[in-house]
Amino acid sequence: EEQLVESGGGLVHPGGSLRLSCAASGFAFSSRAMSWLRQAPGKGPEWVSGIDSDGGLTRYADSVEGRFTISRDNARNTLYLQMIDLKPEDTAVYYCARGLSSRIFLNVPIRGRWGQGTQVTVSS
């Protein structure tokens, strides 16, 4: 069974940092591009960042460029999102999502390819 389990969310002050992790199992993680998505209260899901299967190519939404860094450890089947200089507008549930190939993807895939999410709240 394919599974994605996010962790690392929490409550942080504006300007703070968090590192999210996504543990993958049940599929060939090292052969799949991955992305981070987020969904704020009352809004639709938003693509945040993507990485290709070997980690050589990354992309970011304009809203997080320069503040977030996506990375992966294929030996550990784990995806990461390092977030710095967090802002209240970053408050959302963050999800990792699996691609269908090794090629990076820059869109929100179907819900069945997401994990269960981890809450990030940025507030003073």
End-to-end CA span: 40 Å
Total number of beta strands: 10
State the helix count: 0
Q: Helix content range of the residues, please?
A: under 10%
Q: Strand order, biggest sheet?
A: 2-10-9-4-5-6
Order of helices and strands: EEEEEEEEEE
Q: Helix- and strand-based class?
A: mainly beta
- Report Rg: 13 Å
Mean pLDDT: 97
Strand content: 35-45%
For the biggest sheet, the summary is: 6 strands, mixed
Which geometry do the CA atoms define? globular
Query: Which parts are unreliable, with pLDDT below 50 for 5 consecutive residues or more?
Result: none
Helices and strands, with pairings:
Blueprint: E1 3-7, E2 10-12, E3 18-25, E4 34-39, E5 46-51, E6 58-60, E7 68-73, E8 78-83, E9 92-98, E10 118-122
Parallel strand pairs: 2-10
Antiparallel strand pairs: 1-3, 3-8, 4-5, 4-9, 5-6, 7-8, 9-10
Characterization of this structure:
With 124 residues, this protein is mostly beta strands. It is 0% helix and 44% strand. It is built from no helices and ten strands. It has a six-stranded mixed beta sheet with strand order 2-10-9-4-5-6, with no helix packed on it. Strands 1-3-8-7 form a four-stranded antiparallel beta sheet, with no helix packed on it. A hairpin with a 6-residue loop joins strand 4 (34-39) and strand 5 (46-51). It is globular and about 40 Å long. The mean pLDDT is 97.
Search tags:
124 residues; six-stranded mixed sheet; four-stranded antiparallel sheet; 10 strands; globular
